[in-house]
Amino acid sequence: MADEPIISRGFRGRRAAAGRQSRIPPGQYEERDFPVLSAGPTPHTPLSKWDFTLRAVDGATMKWTWDELQALPHENITRDIHCVTKWTKLDTVWEGISVDTLVGAAAARGVQTAPFIVAYSDGGYTTNLPFDDLAGGKAWIAFGYDGKPLHPEHGGPARLLVPHLYFWKSAKWVRGIQFTAHNEPGFWEVNGYHDRGDPWREQRYTGDP
Amino acid sequence: MTDGSDVAPSVVRPRRIEWRAATITDVIRETAHAKTLVMDVPNWPGHTAGQHVDVRLTAEDGYQAQRSYSIASAPSRSTLAITIERLDDGEVSPYLTDALGVGDRVELRGPIGGYFVWEPSMGGPLFLVGGGSGIVPLMAMLRTRAALPAPIRGSAPATLLYSSRAWDDVIYRDEVITLAEDPGVNVVQTLTRSQPSGWTGFTRRIDADMLAEVAPAPSLRPHIYICGPTALVETAAQMLVELGHEPARVKTERFGPTG
Ligand SMILES: Cc1cc2nc3c(=O)[nH]c(=O)nc-3n(C[C@H](O)[C@H](O)[C@H](O)COP(=O)(O)OP(=O)(O)OC[C@H]3O[C@@H](n4cnc5c(N)ncnc54)[C@H](O)[C@@H]3O)c2cc1C
What does the alpha-carbon distance between residue B38 and residue B49 come to, in Å, rounded to a whole number? Predict the structure, then answer.
């Protein structure tokens, strides 16, 4: 409809500092705080009852308890994150385990990968991703933020971390990854949000290019 | 989660939600810090209470900023209202509240969101918990309900628990009082910082006792919507689950200050 953007007379805007603006995707602004966003109550699962599952299309699974997961090699991850509600936070520091590590361990037990995944969480949240968006050092199961255990409000004890996509793909309170042969839209993806969510292409909502 | 086999692949390519030029037809001063912009949006597709729009501002050199605003008005084909609380050092809200007037145009796209929504077909009871500008999407729900024919309206009783700092900070103050004249609507307000003399409502932040007293019983399976600052939303959602409400019925939206 509006081909030429309407100029808002007198609007100057608050641009990010030089050198940072190029790291802010279109339509985003730089946030220094860490706002909380989720669709419902924050679940609180005790670590003694927590586990993480990878499940193949054929049902083959591998499960880790909290302690087993902690025994895997940790990585420190510094990345910019982008929330579809418009904020971007630069240089966030996480600690977690690469999805590659989990997939590698599971493959040795016969858990095969597939073209798509659905990540699922306590509280019933799901999100879908092409497996390519998790593999090759692009995604982690994160349980540390800024040198401390990840707070429940931000998805603790553990969340998926897929920083190159809008942050709703980084499922909070994650408990497992189900491989799927086909793409199966998750919670926000059936509620009006884009299927892939690349912030640099501004894929916010269903129908965005 | 579903099994791969029973999910049909989507074939219809959905249309993009386009930017539209909205023309401001009225500006309502709600409080010293909040204003409502009433807008005429040509070909607006309609919306559901609880949805939001994205507003985009463009500076003369092409720099753009976007923010989300809940729709305050009941569904309509042409007019749309949003209510903006001014953040003094904010990038976008001061421009919306201070610089725009009747006849000015602003770009927006929507409606957006399919989860924090209430449609009359969902029925009641409704339990709405709002803090500050978090009232906005809840007001869209109450306005939607108020526009229903009486028998349908009667089947969706609503309770609003509304927290503001002071009497002069209550957004939609007169309308909230009028709404409460409907026997199907129960409005309970709390003023957390200061109260006018003779105040009979609550005077503290929303807590477990207040929720237990005000919320419909869990056995009535109310549809619960909570919107406001993060701390309010976190506490209220947590306590309602502890009171026995199903987590899946507790829907939250956070957009105020954090902490
Ligand atoms: C789905 C959704 C719906 C929304 N609906 C509404 C609505 O109906 N009405 C409305 O007014 N806003 C609404 N918001 C918030 C709105 O999008 C903006 O975030 C808000 O207007 C602030 O934008 P700004 O550019 O003025 O401030 P910014 O330039 O973005 O600055 C905000 C900064 O101040 C902090 N901050 C945020 N709020 C406060 C506060 N109250 N006091 C102090 N610091 C604060 C933030 O952490 C941030 O650092 C909604 C947000 C979402 C995600």
Answer: 16
Number of other CB atoms surrounding residue A190 within 10 Å:
16
**Residue A46 at interface with chain B, using a CB cutoff of 8 Å:** no
**pLDDT tens by residue, A50-94:** 999 999 999 999 999 999 999 999 999 999 999 999 999 999 999
CA distances from A193 to A205, B140, B158, B175 (A): 4, 21, 29, 33
Both B92 and B128 in one domain: the answer is no
CB contact under 8 A, B95 and A180: no
Contact between A41 and B230 using a beta-carbon 8 Å cutoff? no
Q: Structure pTM?
A: 0.92
- Whether B11 is covered by a domain: the verdict is no
How close is the Cα of B133 to the center of ligand 1, in Å?
A: 10
- Reported as a single tens digit per residue, the pLDDT across B48-98 is 999 999 999 999 999 999 999 999 999 988 899 999 999 999 999 999 999
Contact present, B216 and B139 (Cβ < 8 Å): no
What is A27-33+49-201's CATH superfamily?
Oxidoreductase, molybdopterin-binding domain (3.90.420.10)
In this structure, is the dihedral angle defined by the CA atoms of residues A132, A133, A137 and A143, taken in order, positive or negative?
negative
Give the domain-ending residue among B55, B78, B112: B112
